[in-house]
Amino acid sequence: MGLEGKIAWITGAGTGIGLAGAQALAQAGCVVVMSGRRPEVLEPEAAAIRAAGGKVETAPLDVMDAQAVQAVAEGIQARHGRVDILVNSAGLNVPTRFWKNQTTPGWDQVIRVNLDGTYYCIAAVLPGMRARRDGLVINVSSWSGKFDTYLTGPAYNAAKHGVVAMTAHLNQEECVNGIRACALCPAEVNTPIMEKRPVKPSAEDRARMLQPEDLGRTIRFIAEMPAHVCINEILISPTWNRIFLGADDLKR
C-alpha cells in the first residue's frame, strides 16, 4: 500500500526507534508529525528530514500529560483532518530498576511513560479512526513485553507486557471498525536508552545489536501492508542475541 500523503504521528521521535520510524515513513511519502519531550532535539532532526525531501512537522509533548496528548491530537486533526498512522515509541527505563533499588518515583515514571502514555495517545486518535473506519497503531513494546527479562526490571517488564496486552485487545475490539494494531517487540536496540543501563554495554556489543534503522524499516513494512492485513505482533532480535548468550552486564 502506498503511503504518499498519509498522516503519521510518532511519539518519542527525537531519538532511537521513533526517529528511525519518522525517517522511514517520511521517505515513504507520509506527512510525519514528530513528538518528543525536547524541542531542541526534535527540531534539528526534523530539519534533516526536510532537507532530504520529507514532509515533517514537530509537536513537542510529554506523553505523561493526558491533556497535552489530547491537545496535540486535536491540533493534528485541525491541520490535517486525520491521523492515519500512530507510532507509540515514547519509552524509558531508569538505572535503579530492580527490586533491591527500585523507587516509587522511578516505578511511576516508567509506567506513566511506557504504558499510560501509549494509552493516552491511542485514546486520542481512536474516535477519528472509528469515524473513518480506518487506522493503524504501531506500539513499540519490547522483548521484555513477551518474556520476563531480568536486565530490564519489574516496572519496564510490567509496562511492556501491558502494551502487548493492550494492543491485542485493540485488535479484538476495533477490528470491526477497520482499525489494526501491531505490537513491535524488539530485543536490544542500540539507542540512547542504553545509557540508562546500570552497566552500559560495550561499544562492540552495541554494534552487534539491532540498530534504529532496522526498526525504521520494520515500521515502514507494517505501515505498507494493505488495510485488510493486520500484523498483530513482531518479535525481532539481533542474530547475536545477548539475552540468550549472556554478558557481564546481564548477570545478576
Describe this structure in words.
The mean pLDDT is 96. The protein has 8 helices and 7 strands. It is of the alpha/beta class and 252 residues long. The N and C termini lie far apart (46 Å). Strand 4, helix 4 and strand 5 form a beta-alpha-beta unit.
Following the backbone from N to C, one meets helices and strands in this order, namely EHEHEHEHEHEHHEH
Provide the structure class: alpha/beta
Major sheet size, sense and barrel closure? 7 strands, parallel
| Rg on CA atoms, Å | 17 Å
The dominant shape is: globular
Number of distinct helices: 8
**Beta-sheet strand percentage?**
5-15%
Number of strands: 7
Short overview:
The chain has 252 residues and is α/β, with parallel strands linked by helices. Helices cover 44% and strands 13% of the residues.
What secondary-structure arrangement, pairings included, does this model have?
Layout: E1 7-10, H1 16-27, E2 31-34, H2 39-51, E3 55-58, H3 66-80, E4 85-88, H4 104-132, E5 135-140, H5 153-174, E6 179-186, H6 203-207, H7 212-223, E7 233-236, H8 242-245
Parallel strand pairs: 1-2, 1-4, 2-3, 4-5, 5-6, 6-7
Helix pairs in contact: 1-7, 3-4, 4-5
